[in-house]
Every structure is written in C-alpha cells, then in structure tokens.
Amino acid sequence: MKQWIALATLAAVSAGAYAQAFPGNKPVAIVVPFAAGGPTDRVARDLAEAMRKQIPGSNFVVENTVGAGGTIGANRVAKAAPDGHTLLLFHIGMAATPALYRKLSYKPLEDFEYLGMVNDVPMTLVGKPQLPANTYRDFENYIRANAGKLNIAHAGLGSASHICGLLWQTNLQSKEAMTTIPFGGTGPAMTALIGGQVDMMCDQTTSTTAQIEGGRIKAFAVTTAKPLSNHPVLKHYPSLQEMGMKNFNLTIWHGLYAPKGTPPAVTKMLNDALKKVLKDSEFVKKNENLGALVVTDNRTDPAEHKKFVAAEMLKIKAAVDAAGKYAD
Ligand code: ASP
User: Fold this and answer.
1) Global pTM?
2) Ligand 1 atom at minimum distance from 207 CA
C-alpha cells in the first residue's frame, strides 16, 4: 500500500514537473498542412499569437507542411515526438481524407491526442476580377456560355476547396465541364485568382473576406444555409441554398491535435489555454471579422472533439463510397 502511495505521488509530482517544464524555452510548432497565406494559415497565426498570451513565456510558431490535401502535414505530426512541441491545426480534411485516401499512413482517431476544436468557417464562391458576371445568376449563365473553357482552383484532393467545388458542381443544373487546378493551399491559388490565371474557386472566408473587400476578386455566393447578414462585407452575397441548391450548407470546422502519447499534463495545459483563447475577445473579434465563429459549445472538450470527428468521418465515408471516387 505504502509503495502504491509512493508511486502515485511520484507520478503526480513528475506529471506536475513536466507541465511546469513545458514548453520551456523550446518553441511549439503549430503545423498547418497547407501553404502559407491561406485560410488555415490565417487561423493558425491568430491562434499562435493568442496561445502565447495564455502560456507565459511560450513561443508558438506556425510551420507549413504542404501536400496531398493536408495529409503530409498530418502525417508529420502523427509521427512527431509526443512532447507537445509539434501540434497540428487541421480542418474538415481530418475527417474527409481517410475516406478519400485509402492508403493513409496514419490513423486519425488513434495517432493523435485531441486538444479541442477551434472555429467554424463559412466558404465563398469567388471568381477572378476580370469575370464579366456580377451576380450569382450572371455567374451561372457565364459558366453555361463558356462550357469546357473555364477552370476552378482547389487546395488538393480532400481539401475544403476541393470538397466545396465538387458539391457545387454536382448541384449545378447544367453539368458544365471545368478543369480543376490543384495548388498546395488556397494561399497560392488566391494569388493566381487575383492575377487572373485561374477563373474561380470556393474558399474559406478567413482567406477571401479581405480580398473581396479590397475588390481584388469577385464574390458570388456563400456556402452557409443562410446569408451572413451580420457581416459587413459578406452580407451582400446570397447563400447557394437561396440560389436553388437545396440543402447546400457547408461550414469548415478546425481542430487542434498533438501526437498520441503526449503527456496528459501537457495536453491539459494546451486544452486549458485553447479554452481561454476561445474567450479572448481579440481572438473572437479577429474570427468574426473574417466571417468565422469560434467554438463555444462542448466541442472544446477533447472527448467531444474526438466524438465529433469520428461521426464526421462516418458521414463523409458514406458519401465518398457512394460516389466511388477516391484520391488514390
Ligand atoms: N485550408 C486550405 C488552406 O489553408 C484550403 C482548403 O482546404 O481548401 O489552404
């Protein structure tokens, strides 16, 4: 008995000591599995800054590990040392890629500690500034009149822009052929859109809002069920549902992950900090300005986060299997 108490005390003390030692003077990398300058990168940079405030002396930095719809970055974190110094910020792709890539080199539910969800981000259907269309209806007419000649950018198979573009194209009344152009993220895709090298894209508001506001791209619709009527920039665009695409409702959630086996004292510290970040008015405002909403429900709880992702995985797998289209 005495021995047990001694062991238990030792375990508690060393867990506490580890938490105290973490993060020490070593930076904590938040791996973004897409290119810099894109929507996930935007969220990660704001998150890194807000986390730094919550854990005094910490240095959260963002690292972009690009490719294969986010799976290369996710794999990097799955295989990283489980010491809390390498984290992953991933979106709906965490649940979508296992259905699309049948030979994934990591297991989304088994290889990570779930640290809580971060935010929900709507998407927008946007076009290059030179497009003659100004409304969604004009846009559809233009597509019809230019069947086979247009292209649509995305951030790789299984990315949010890819999923959104596919859903939208399957809902178009006339199935006009379009060429898809994959990028390492919608950051570089946005540069090509602004430059007129690609015609259109479906991208998250964390990336598109500032560009729409600056008049550098055209926006035609939002992907949420209802228009974003409280947002000063995005309120001007109809929802795809209003435009006749029944049941079209797509919002991109993000979650934070650590490699499996990260000490509980560290995951708790990170989860506690994340929960505080989601109540930090500056972080909340930054999200709102970009059309996003921070998570306020129990999805900030790691167990709920994992349950949510598991349910999304099943839903998406059923849809992907029904379509029979895979990335590999
Ligand atoms: N989240 C990706 C990025 O940050 C884009 C996407 O998933 O479509 O580039």
Assistant:
1) 0.89
2) 4
